[in-house]
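WARN  no MSA supplied for this record, continuing single-sequence
INFO  ligand: stearoyl-coenzyme A
INFO  echoing inputs
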Amino acid sequence: MKREKPKYMQIIDAAVIVIAENGYHGSQVAKIAKQAGVADGTIYLYFKNKDDILISVFKEKMGVFIERLREIAHRPISTEEKLYELVKNHYTILQNDHHLAIVTQLELRQTRKPLRTKISDILREYLSLYDYILKEGIENGVLKDSIDIRLLRQAIFGMIDETSTSWVMTGQKHNLVSLTDEVHQLILHGLKK
Amino acid sequence: MKREKPKYMQIIDAAVIVIAENGYHGSQVAKIAKQAGVADGTIYLYFKNKDDILISVFKEKMGVFIERLREIAHRPISTEEKLYELVKNHYTILQNDHHLAIVTQLELRQTRKPLRTKISDILREYLSLYDYILKEGIENGVLKDSIDIRLLRQAIFGMIDETSTSWVMTGQKHNLVSLTDEVHQLILHGLKK
Ligand SMILES: CCCCCCCCCCCCCCCCCC(=O)SCCNC(=O)CCNC(=O)[C@H](O)C(C)(C)COP(=O)(O)OP(=O)(O)OC[C@H]1O[C@@H](n2cnc3c(N)ncnc32)[C@H](O)[C@@H]1OP(=O)(O)O
Ligand SMILES: CCCCCCCCCCCCCCCCCC(=O)SCCNC(=O)CCNC(=O)[C@H](O)C(C)(C)COP(=O)(O)OP(=O)(O)OC[C@H]1O[C@@H](n2cnc3c(N)ncnc32)[C@H](O)[C@@H]1OP(=O)(O)O
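INFO  complex generated
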């Protein structure tokens, strides 16, 4: 497996920094190689091209995150608690890594179709955990059964994602993780007094 | 004023179609000129470059939309009704124009900083109407006063925006406008039974 080779993860981690600092367009493969401390040619032993690097970055980092979330989804805790952990963990991974947050909220929003399709495929795996938690909550009578589960999933992800993007766009100044309580309130009970 | 010249709006409308069909990257100015039925040189009488066309498209289309929303925000109706109209109008403008929806949900998500800043400035004007409605709702005792208004604004926009993007990404197949009731329910009352 590629990822067992130490240089693979070294290049992935370097790519996050270079893409965050230079934008995806300005991140030549040579820059990523330099940051990783490997020869340009070494990159092509592991990756086909720059798009392949971006997809691999997302896949690797999301893979670890999805594992953590999957564990939470299967804990013997309430649906409310699972949703709380979902929001909190999402915010935490972004807040803990300045560069990762920029790449996730800005640079991964690529418009080219083939790239976008690959990004969506990885995102789908993450969002399927939302479906798992939501379905369980509906079956247990905790959540409303009158709203389409796809809509619930999109609405929750949309809230988390947009608050994260606003945080990145305004310079990562306020505390993102500390929004968890309020967002959790909103998800469960809405705005109405 | 530029926009009083008939060719200006003709180019704007052509750009929406060309960008939706070819992606921003594949939308050469010559293609937009051809679609608009004007000479290439004519474009440069109105626009500095392709980025200027994209920004102008967003500015013009949003300008009309913001006017409609501003009128709704000032109607003598309840906060709940204003929020309903906000969601419904947002979905309606996207659902009524296949090309505009693609440009808004995909092609406007540009990562280059200067472009992004200009797009954000226009978005800020739209979102200030959310703030107006939310503040009024809090003052009238209809909405919770325990949640930061910036967070409320981001959460509502996030729900609307993500449901719209999912609708575009899955091929504009389901009826977006008909999600209004469920989204309005979620915004006001949340997921909890
Ligand atoms: C062909 C086009 C046709 C269009 C036709 C119409 C179609 C329908 C409608 C279309 C919808 C629009 C779609 C737009 C698509 C393109 C744009 C996107 O990508 S959208 C998707 C991606 N989303 C985006 O791109 C939007 C990202 N957001 C932003 O860029 C900005 O929030 C802003 C520009 C919207 C406002 O910025 P600003 O004026 O600065 O005001 P803020 O209040 O935000 O911040 C003020 C201060 O408050 C701090 N603070 C904030 N929140 C919190 C909090 N929760 N807790 C605590 N603190 C918080 C913050 O740190 C700051 O601190 P400081 O500086 O004072 O110390
Ligand atoms: C450096 C990286 C490090 C990452 C580390 C970890 C960091 C923390 C976490 C990060 C978060 C992830 C950020 C990702 C950023 C990049 C991606 C974005 O741009 S995200 C921001 C932008 N967002 C996006 O890019 C996501 C956009 N969404 C999508 O692309 C897709 O929804 C999908 C791929 C997620 C699932 O697709 P699919 O598997 O197809 O499943 P569906 O269920 O959706 O659809 C199935 C069917 O249901 C129909 N239907 C759907 N909804 C409704 C409804 N409400 N009512 C009625 N019907 C509805 C639909 O028409 C379809 O019909 P048919 O075909 O069966 O006839």
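Chain B has one domain: 51-189.
INFO  checksum written, moving to next record
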